[in-house]
Amino acid sequence: MPDRLSALDASFLYVEDQTTPMHVGGVAIFERPASGFTYEQLLALVGARLAFLPRYRQRVLGVPGHLARPVWVDDVDFDLNYHVRRSALPEPGSDEQLFDLVARLMSRRLAPERPLWEAYFVEGLSGGRVALVTKTHQSVVDGIGTIDLGQLILDETPAPPEPFDDLWTPRREPSRTQLVLDAVSETVQRPGELAENLRAAATDAVATVGKVADTVGGVAATVVRPAPSGPLNVRVSGGRMYAVVRTRLEDFRSVRAQHGGKVNDVILAAITGALREWLLSRGESVTPTSTLRALVPMAVNDAETAEYATPALVGNEVAAYLVDLPVGEPNPVLRLQHIGHAMDAHLDSGRSVAARGLLKVSGFAPATLHSLGARAGGSLSGRIFNLMITNSPGPQVPVYAGEARLVEMFPVMPLMRTQALAIGVTSYHGGVYFGLNGDRKAAFDVRLLGGMIEEALEELKGAHW
């Protein structure tokens, strides 16, 4: 019997439309080695690793009449060259040109009739650099059976791509009759699912996606009221703006040493300070009690499954926490303290996964953990938070794709229907890299916000208490 999509995975497909593609992206920038790093070498590297990711050669097949959720089937026409594509900027390509390209690529939906992922090998960057832009649908990466492609192709030591023989043979696609028979058999065992499947397929799946009961971390009191209104919560358009911020991990550590808290608290405080200035620059009303509510997915220990969990994710799951960011507080140190107190409930629960634990994950874990964060956010109603902020620590030593050294890595988090901004943060080899994905109409000035994050960090560094 084919592998059926879970209710959550199916909901990501049902809720998707032209303005809100449900994929998570990443922008990896590499230093091209003297031996070269070509499209053909990347193709060989990805091809050699696909045997570990069978989901990446499968597509979604619907069940006639929506009698059951869709199933995963092998793509008998799988074409690696279709999924790993070649692109180039006019030399010498600037970072601004690269991120404009990223915004255009991320605004396009993945083809539903093919495996739900794409990768773009971008040449022509200044300084002899190359970039790899990846897109993976939220229904693909579950962190257990399937991790993100960006995690699998990165290694701790440089090595030329290994030769591989593509001996993969796809399984025959089930017939319509077989799909119906399987669905009827499951319906007999679980009759309630038929009505749920028909309802989800016939609507925009808001009822399926808008689950709030599973939110944890002592925030149940805030779940019952909607998030504060403001410019971040509008119906998004189909266009995107993408901006990045480059900072140093040592700066966040120095603020932590001076004022206490965790590095993650300092990162959230810098974002909060930037959001405050951004709102003021737009003429928005900001009072001393003004807040913006962030959904902050974080890795937690699952005590029940940790013993049996795959080593690929150190036995953790990702839970969504709601944090009210005090954008009305003018004092940067008080902002940091407010955020630290808000995060203490999670840390005191005993389920949090320390950064050093996540760093033991094989490969480049942030690629997968950002995808899991998007899944956690996508399972909740967008009415209860203003924006999503994911932060995943990465290794503090260089990693490589083949012989090419990874220089920088920026996440690209998806937007929900009524949320104009999402922020992903990744630390790697001494740097902390922010990726800001904004709606082209509602967050046209997302690059200005990026500069304000740098200014807010400098404010925290210079603050005295």
UniProtKB/TrEMBL annotation:
Flavoprotein in keyword set: no
Gene Ontology terms describing biological process: biological process involved in interaction with host; glycerol metabolic process; response to hypoxia; response to nitric oxide; triglyceride biosynthetic process
GO MF: diacylglycerol O-acyltransferase activity
EC number: 2.3.1.20
Lineage, broadest ranks: Bacteria, Bacillati, Actinomycetota, Actinomycetes, Pseudonocardiales
Annotated catalysed reactions: an acyl-CoA + a 1,2-diacyl-sn-glycerol = a triacyl-sn-glycerol + CoA
Official protein name in the record: Diacylglycerol O-acyltransferase
Pathway noted in the entry: Glycerolipid metabolism; triacylglycerol biosynthesis; Lipid metabolism
Signal peptide extent: none
Domain O-acyltransferase WSD1 C-terminal: 315-461
GO cellular component: plasma membrane
NCBIfam families documented for this protein: acyl_WS_DGAT (TIGR02946)
Source domain of life: Bacteria
Domain (O-acyltransferase WSD1-like N-terminal) ranges: 5-267
Record's keyword terms, sorted: Acyltransferase, Glycerol metabolism, Lipid biosynthesis, Lipid metabolism, Transferase
Entry's family note: Belongs to the long-chain O-acyltransferase family.
UniProt keyword annotation of Nucleotide-binding present: no
